[in-house]
């Protein structure tokens, strides 16, 4: 080694010199770069050298910004061939390739290009591009003269001017590949590049699966990307010709540093901008932007609407292919036309205009840049596998034609979306919409009306939350401190988790990890580093609750320990985010069993009876045995989780309180709960008490016995709901007919009749007529005779509102203008 170094010094004193001066400006055969020295671009923007990321023992050659104190590596040469120690050297081989030599001059990495120049030199340009070119090349910035350039082999960063896309002549595909993690630059399986096809799109992939697509280029940017409208920071250029297809960007202000980075930890493609005075990178934009951006969340013809609940809705004129899966938020099967459609048959074949859409996946599509929209429509009509058409270029007032074949996939409403004409039976479209200027005007009117309504509602909300918040503040001292003193003795340490851990565990709240959407927010499955599985409830942000109160509540709820309550494992509070961590229940919730014809067979009568009794005990604990007296306020089948042995556990208790609902018996402006389970006095007057929970328990009991939902079921002959139906059967002396057909064989009639009687007692109209949970537990488990139920209280809605309102957010609770009328069963 010493000899070798001496030789170098002898043959070229500059090597020695370069180590002292620390930086060189080129690498040549006689002037290699040693570990410890760097190569700096002419104006000092970028620097190339050796680095070791984090605690990694490996040495890499990389390029970073010279003037940014937080080392930001934008390119790594030997990312998949790390050097193991410090005795490395970057040099030029005889054939002109850049080579990385390790101990004993063993080859670690090479540019491996065919280079036919006599005097190659390596140079780092001021745009961050490392190039090999002829030494006497005057026009040194001309791409044509580079025999090799690092811009052709991107890592995880797209710099200004760098092409992302294809050289169609050589087949070179330039795409981004994330680092495995922040201290391992080797290639991850999270990538982003252009997908070739008739109409190329930017895609992001996880392994071989498409994870995100931008939508095809439409002259401005893509129909699926917000925030690309003209802005002072950057400008995109998309080029498609016979030789190449690529996208690149330029920065408008040369003193601003802004790059695109792919991050495998976050599963995001982010544009980040350097903020000199705070010395941090700030995120300007992330893709995917939200869960609707995730590839094909809603299945074919399913439209993802981020503000809708649930987010997936079938396109107008379409219905869920499998309503059952769809209702359980399994949208993968997608939607089908709701009216039969026949190709080419008059009045059975037409188009419906759907405005503001991200264009569907272009894998099966066709384009013509010079066709008009009319021709486009005609072209589509001629081919029976054509399902939609649209303008290709919306930038210049609309031109060109895109048509799609087969199912339309990965649809969403997007701010930068455009008009899509979807083929369906004409009677379903009202009229043919292609030349429907009038429709546009009508649309504008509708938008205006909606906008005004929304702003009014917002105003009301604002006023309401103001009143509401002042109210909570007023109560603060009384309630909270008292409880804290009371519980302080035990000093239970509730683990607080940081956001990064949760993000990691839930795969950044990946849609794949979503277990469901309950009141107060979505629930995700998470896997901790040690393999433990947990459920994470991400609370909706807009609760009026303060941080301290929230933490107190969580600690109090974590103290509630009962075998029929879901265990609270911890929480995470960071910025706007509030999350609760629960034990994970592999069998999911009761509703997925009792309301499902196939699954319901798994729960025979003895199991159901056990479940009933156990829920009663859990509720009793909440109401009476714990010091806190928790009123659940949203007891329902989907809030009952089942463990491996089908033992029920009540979840979401205390949330009404944690999310800022007042928990005193009495009157509330905020209705938290689910129609169909709410006691009359609660739904109408907002009066809640442990007796309103008893009412919900009664509904749940009838549902468990009958396998029918109170809300949705109507018995044709009498237009009764489940409660009315049960009461009718009871009066007719045939209560056992209420039972789910799948239970008939396993059922114990006297237990069953007893349960129904208890249920009806719980459903009494006046709270004082209902038993408390202690009595319920006793009634269920003893043989004593029970009192006769009177007419139950049950509600029929005059106006139906869609979905089981989660009521986690104030808006969905305070502004529900549901008129409920109380009917007395005759
Ligand atoms: C490097 O060369 C020396 C002397 O020839 C030898 O002893 C040593 O094992 C070699 N190391 C490696 C890693 O090949
Ligand atoms: C170098 O390139 C040749 C031909 O392009 C290929 O066969 C070989 O595997 C490459 N070697 C490395 C180390 O990438
Ligand atoms: C990904 O993002 C996280 C969070 O911002 C950051 O800590 C990490 O360093 C990033 N990873 C890479 C490889 O840059
Ligand atoms: C460019 O950015 C710098 C720093 O942010 C700012 O001071 C300057 O005004 C900008 N120039 C233009 C032309 O916008
Ligand atoms: C595109 O449409 C124009 C006008 O209708 C037509 O002349 C041209 O041949 C079409 N091109 C292709 C490739 O179909
Ligand atoms: C309809 O389009 C499909 C897909 O491009 C094509 O395979 C088929 O030949 C076309 N049919 C007709 C009748 O043009």
Automatic annotation (TrEMBL):
Question: Which SUPFAM superfamilies does this UniProt record tie to the protein?
Answer: alpha-D-mannose-specific plant lectins, Protein kinase-like (PK-like)
Q: Please name the InterPro entries in this protein's record.
A: Bulb-type_lectin_dom, Bulb-type_lectin_dom_sf, EGF, Kinase-like_dom_sf, Pan_app, Prot_kinase_dom, S-locus_recpt_kinase_C, S_locus_glycoprot_dom
Q: Gene Ontology terms, cellular component aspect?
A: plasma membrane
Q: Where is the Protein kinase domain?
A: 509-791
Q: Where in the cell is it found?
A: Membrane
Report whether Transmembrane shows up as a keyword of the record. yes
UniProt keywords, alphabetically: ATP-binding, Disulfide bond, EGF-like domain, Glycoprotein, Kinase, Membrane, Nucleotide-binding, Serine/threonine-protein kinase, Signal, Transferase, Transmembrane, Transmembrane helix
Pfam families found in the cross-reference section: B_lectin, DUF3403, PAN_2, PK_Tyr_Ser-Thr, S_locus_glycop
What residues does the EGF-like domain cover?
A: 288-324
Q: What is this protein called in UniProt?
A: Receptor-like serine/threonine-protein kinase
């Amino acid at each position: 080694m010493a000899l070798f170094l001496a030789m170098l010094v002898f043959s070229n004193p500059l090597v020695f010199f370069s180590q002292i001066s620390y930086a060189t400006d080129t690498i040549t055969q006689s002037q290699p770069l040693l570990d410890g020295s760097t190569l700096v671009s002419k104006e000092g923007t970028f620097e190339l050298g050796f680095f070791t990321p984090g605690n990694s023992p490996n040495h890499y050659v990389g390029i970073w910004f010279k003037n940014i104190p937080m080392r930001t590596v934008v390119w790594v040469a030997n990312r998949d061939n790390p050097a193991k120690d410090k005795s490395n050297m970057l040099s030029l081989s005889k054939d002109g390739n850049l080579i990385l030599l390790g101990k004993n001059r063993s080859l670690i990495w090479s540019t491996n290009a065919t280079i036919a120049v006599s005097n190659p030199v390596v140079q780092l340009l001021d745009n961050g591009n490392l190039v090999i070119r002829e030494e006497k090349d005057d026009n040194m910035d001309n791409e044509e003269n580079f025999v090799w350039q690092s811009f052709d082999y991107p890592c995880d960063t797209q710099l200004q001017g760098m092409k992302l896309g294809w050289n169609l002549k050589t087949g070179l595909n330039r795409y981004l590949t994330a680092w495995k993690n922040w201290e391992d630059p080797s290639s991850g399986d999270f990538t982003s590049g252009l997908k070739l096809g008739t109409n190329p799109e930017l895609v992001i992939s996880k392994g071989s699966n498409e994870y995100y697509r931008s939508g095809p280029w439409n002259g401005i940017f893509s129909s699926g990307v917000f925030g690309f409208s003209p802005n002072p920071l950057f400008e995109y250029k998309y080029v498609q010709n016979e030789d190449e297809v690529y996208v690149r960007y330029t920065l408008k202000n040369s003193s601003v540093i802004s790059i695109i980075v792919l991050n495998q930890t976050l599963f995001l493609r982010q544009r980040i901008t350097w903020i000199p005075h705070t010395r941090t990178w700030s995120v300007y934009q992330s893709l995917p932007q939200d869960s609707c951006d995730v590839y094909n969340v809603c299945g074919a013809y399913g439209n993802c609407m981020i503000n809708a609940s649930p987010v997936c809705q079938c396109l107008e004129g379409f219905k869920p292919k499998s309503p059952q899966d769809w209702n359980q938020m399994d949208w993968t099967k997608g939607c089908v036309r709701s009216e039969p459609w026949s190709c080419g048959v008059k009045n059975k074949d037409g188009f419906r205009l759907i405005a503001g859409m991200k264009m569907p996946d272009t894998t099966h599509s066709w384009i013509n840049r010079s066709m008009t929209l009319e021709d486009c429509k005609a072209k589509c009509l001629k081919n029976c596998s054509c399902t939609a058409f649209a303008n290709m270029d919306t930038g210049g007032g609309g031109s060109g034609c895109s048509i799609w074949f087969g199912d339309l996939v990965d649809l969403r409403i997007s701010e930068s979306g455009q008009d899509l004409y979807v083929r369906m039976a004409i009677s379903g479209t009202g009229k043919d919409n292609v030349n429907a200027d009038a429709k546009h005007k009508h649309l504008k009117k509708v938008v205006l009306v909606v906008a005004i309504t929304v702003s009014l509602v917002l105003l009301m909300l604002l006023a309401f939350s103001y009143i509401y918040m002042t109210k909570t503040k007023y109560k603060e001292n009384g309630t909270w401190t008292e409880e804290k003193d009371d519980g302080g003795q035990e000093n239970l340490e509730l683990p607080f988790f940081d956001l990064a851990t949760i993000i990691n565990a839930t795969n950044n709240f990946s849609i794949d990890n979503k277990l469901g959407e309950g009141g107060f927010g979505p629930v995700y499955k998470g896997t901790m580093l040690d393999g433990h599985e947990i459920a994470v409830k991400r609370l909706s942000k807009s609760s009026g609750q303060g941080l301290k109160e929230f933490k107190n509540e969580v600690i109090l709820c974590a103290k509630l320990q009962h075998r029929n309550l879901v265990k609270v494992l911890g929480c995470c509070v960071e910025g706007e985010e509030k999350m609760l961590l629960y034990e994970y229940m592999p069998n999911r919730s009761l509703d997925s069993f009792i309301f499902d014809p196939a699954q319901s067979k798994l729960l025979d009568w003895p199991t159901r009876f056990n479940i009933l009794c156990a829920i009663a005990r859990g509720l009793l604990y909440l109401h009476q045995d714990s010091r806190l007296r928790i009123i659940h306020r949203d007891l329902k089948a989907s809030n009952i989780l089942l463990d491996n042995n089908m033992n029920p556990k009540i979840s979401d208790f205390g949330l009404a309180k944690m999310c800022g609902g007042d928990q005193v018996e009495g009157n509330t402006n905020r209705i938290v709960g689910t129609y169909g389970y709410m006691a009359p006095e609660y739904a109408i007057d907002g009066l809640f008490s442990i007796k309103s929970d008893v009412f919900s328990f009664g509904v749940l009991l009838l549902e468990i016995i009958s396998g029918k939902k109170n809300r949705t079921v109507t018995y044709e002959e009498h237009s009764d709901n489940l409660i009315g139906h049960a009461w009718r059967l009871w009066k007719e002396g045939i209560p056992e007919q209420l039972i789910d057909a799948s239970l008939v064989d396993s059922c114990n009639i006297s237990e069953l009749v007893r349960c129904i009687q208890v249920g009806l007692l719980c459903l009494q109209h006046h709270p004082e007529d209902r038993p408390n949970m202690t009595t319920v537990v006793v009634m269920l488990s003893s043989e004593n005779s029970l009192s006769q139920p009177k007419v139950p209280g049950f509600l029929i809605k005059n106006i139906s509102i869609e979905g089981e309102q989660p009521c986690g957010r104030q808006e969905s609770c305070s502004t529900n203008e549901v008129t409920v009328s109380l009917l007395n069963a005759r």
